[in-house]
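stage 2 :: seqdesign
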């Protein structure tokens, strides 16, 4: 089958859903295209390099076509020029619209003109990350109307987290049986090299194999509960622990962060790293500690066989349902410290790692791709 994905942004160096899902479909034997804008998201560090020319290139077997745009609202998305024309040219069997945004309208229009196409859409929105701006209620109100008018035109409506299912039911007027949970995908391909990568990475970081590594990552602090992680880590005086902080630190948080960094030599700050390096760090570690907001990083870690310690939310419980981690009450530093210690104990650590490797089969990007196609077989 010919599958076409439409997404406002595409960053080849990342391991987001729009990167991994199409590659999984290609590896299953399908012809896959991505239609996207010229620019990559603004991550802060790439403001001078995020702009690209229009054109196409091969990404791991998937053909990515960058289109010009009429204009772009940075990190919200561009309005793509010639999108319908390109869809008519490609004539997909499956059209996958990534997230409920401007391209959602193009997908509906193409379906009306081409009733045989299988139209799929997903949403990443939750009550905590959407409808928070002044125009949020108006913006999502428009899509509620569109879903009410055209919901029967969609062959599959996907939600990337249990919280997203709740959001779509509450704000778009959908019912749970109309929505399919499609977790964000991860890449488990490095698991077969875990011993080799673990040794190399620890040598590069000058961290002996007897030491236990915890990882905390993201745009910090954001809603990542970074200070709670630092406080919980400080409660444990064990000399054999190392806490790797990976990501960008907000200017307003730097004085607080530097105070912890300067007072505890067990904390190592690596700054921002790309997705490939982050997966290597996961393979060398014992535990991902992320008691804050939702992130695709969680699944990346699981697909590297790494146990996870997450916020006690529907997604946190779903991602640890393989007994591959623990959940913690938001803001409970004592509980967080106790669970960090529990997850690092030898017997529990061995079980958690074994279960994380099992979970990686489910959350891996090829299985994720199968989930988008299972209703067609």
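stage 2 :: out
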């Amino acid at each position: 089958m010919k599958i076409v994905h439409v997404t406002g942004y595409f960053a080849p160096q990342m391991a987001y859903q729009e990167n991994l899902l199409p590659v999984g479909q290609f590896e299953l034997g399908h012809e896959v295209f991505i239609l996207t804008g010229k620019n990559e998201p603004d991550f802060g560090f790439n403001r001078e390099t995020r702009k690209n020319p229009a054109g196409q290139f091969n990404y791991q077997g998937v053909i990515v076509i960058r289109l010009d745009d009429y204009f772009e609202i940075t990190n919200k998305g561009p309005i793509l020029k010639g999108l319908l024309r390109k869809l008519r040219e490609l004539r997909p069997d499956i059209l996958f619209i990534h997230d409920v945004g401007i391209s959602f309208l193009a997908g509906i229009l193409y379906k009306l003109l081409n009733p045989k196409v299988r139209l799929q859409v997903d949403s990443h929105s939750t009550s905590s990350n959407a409808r928070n701006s002044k125009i949020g209620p108006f913006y999502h109100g428009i899509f509620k109307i569109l879903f009410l008018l055209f919901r029967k035109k969609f062959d599959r409506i996907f939600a990337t987290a249990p919280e997203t299912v709740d959001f779509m039911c509450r704000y778009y007027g959908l019912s749970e049986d109309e929505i399919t949970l499609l977790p964000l995908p991860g890449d488990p391909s490095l698991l077969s090299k875990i011993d080799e990568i673990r040794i190399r990475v620890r040598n590069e970081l000058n961290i002996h194999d007897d030491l236990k590594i915890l990882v905390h990552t993201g745009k910090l602090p954001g809603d990542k509960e970074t200070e709670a992680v630092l406080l919980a880590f400080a409660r444990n005086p064990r000399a054999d622990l190392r806490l790797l902080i990976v990501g960008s630190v907000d200017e307003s948080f730097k004085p607080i962060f530097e105070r912890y960094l300067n007072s505890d030599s067990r904390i190592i700050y690596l700054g921002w790293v790309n997705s490939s390096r982050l997966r290597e760090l996961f393979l060398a570690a014992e535990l991902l500690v992320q008691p804050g907001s939702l992130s695709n990083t969680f699944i990346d870690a699981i697909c590297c066989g790494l146990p996870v310690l997450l916020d006690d939310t529907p997604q946190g419980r779903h991602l640890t349902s393989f007994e591959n981690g623990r959940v913690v009450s938001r803001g409970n530093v004592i509980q967080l410290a106790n669970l960090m210690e529990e997850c690092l104990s030898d017997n529990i650590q061995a079980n958690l790692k074994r279960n994380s490797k099992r979970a990686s089969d489910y959350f891996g990007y090829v299985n994720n791709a199968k989930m988008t196609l299972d209703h067609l077989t």
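stage 3 :: structure notes
- The chain has 14 helices and 16 strands.
- The first helix runs from residue 17 to 27.
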